[in-house]
Known about the structure:
- The chain is of the alpha+beta class.
- The protein has three domains: about 5-130 and about 310-340, Nucleotidyltransferase, domain 5 (2-Layer Sandwich), CATH 3.30.420.40; about 140-175 and about 250-305, Nucleotidyltransferase, domain 5 (2-Layer Sandwich), CATH 3.30.420; about 180-245, Alpha-Beta Complex (Actin, Chain A, domain 4), CATH 3.90.640.10.
- About 40% of the residues lie in helices and about 25% in strands.
- The protein has twelve helices and 19 strands.
- It has helices spanning about 45-50, 75-90, 105-120, 130-135, 180-195, 200-210, 240-265, 265-275, 290-300, 310-320, 325-330, 335-340; strands at about 5-10, 15-20, 25-30, 30-35, 40-45, 60, 65, 70, 95-100, 125-130, 150-155, 160-165, 165-175, 195, 220-225, 235-240, 280, 300-305, 335.
- A six-stranded mixed beta sheet has the order 3-2-1-9-10-19, sandwiched between helices.
- α5 (about 180-195) crosses α6 and α5 (about 180-195) crosses α7 (about 240-265).
- The longest helix has 24 residues, at about 240-265.
- It is flat, with a radius of gyration of 21 Å.
Amino acid sequence: MLGLKIGIDLGTKNTVIYVKGKGIVLSEASVVAFDDDTEEIIAMGDEAYKMLEKNPDTVRVVLPMRDGVISDIKVTEKMLRHYIEKICGYRIFKPSVIVCTPSNVTVFEKRTLLDAITASGAGEACIMEEPLAAIVGAKVKITNPKGVLVADIGGGTTDIAIVTMGNVAISSSIKVGGNAIDEAIQRYVRRERDILIGSGTAEELKKTIGCAYLPTEEIAVTCKGKKFIGGMPVSFEITSTDVYLAIREQVEYIAEAIRETLEITPPELVSDIYSSGLILTGGGAKIYGMEKMLSDKLKMKVTLAEEPEHCVANGMGYALTNKEFLKNNGYFFRSREDITGYEM
């Protein structure tokens, strides 16, 4: 591996890139804006995200990732190529790239991701399971024969895994994350107020007054949207209780998915987990009261990792500097030529 060593957390909502020796060098929205006539890229990342749902017919704004996997491979390749060239410049040797996937992706989806990475300028690529990267990035020791439970709440999915002796023993993934929570807020406002709000407004409400556990003090903010009937602009007040009611079903579904994972876990590992508790990672874990809600539902200690939105990227950074970790977990770098006929 003569080129730069890069870890890419290619998320549904955001793309985070880690470079060995430098740390996290990029954290931007996974969005690309095109000129619809010429197909030229107008904007990318956070700049393109600002155009979402505001673009004219001549501009196409694309989110190339859905539920943690690639939904538009051509746009994904263009986005990755732009970022890789931005980071690597005109180096002779192509970079070695680790990229993460949800734990339940299919063989075809893994092949698609490897193909997109190597077609974007990587010399060789390696796929790593997202929950394993998350728990390593949370700085939790996993080499001992002791079970550790992690739930990584991302934009498109929530990945749950039990890790022991440096390997994933049990894992599951549900298509409920930040996006599903945003959509739940939009549905609630439409149903209860007959008002339409955009995904950006819903996300802002989630971040500012969103809560997974009913707060003792209610917070109210003024929000803007348009009437469902008539389409006229309107300003209205929404409270933290409203948002709690809107997202309650989604966050409880996450709790139930964790419980179901524990049900299929061997008793000795469950015993370890109930003594050490649950580690929360991912941007969705930052919703107010998520720790308390999960602790009450699961009857165990719940800990929010430091910088939870960057745990996956930091975990890949650890893997890039630790060849033994990669080898022990069966992770291998493969070139574009190796992908043909590659059995996952």
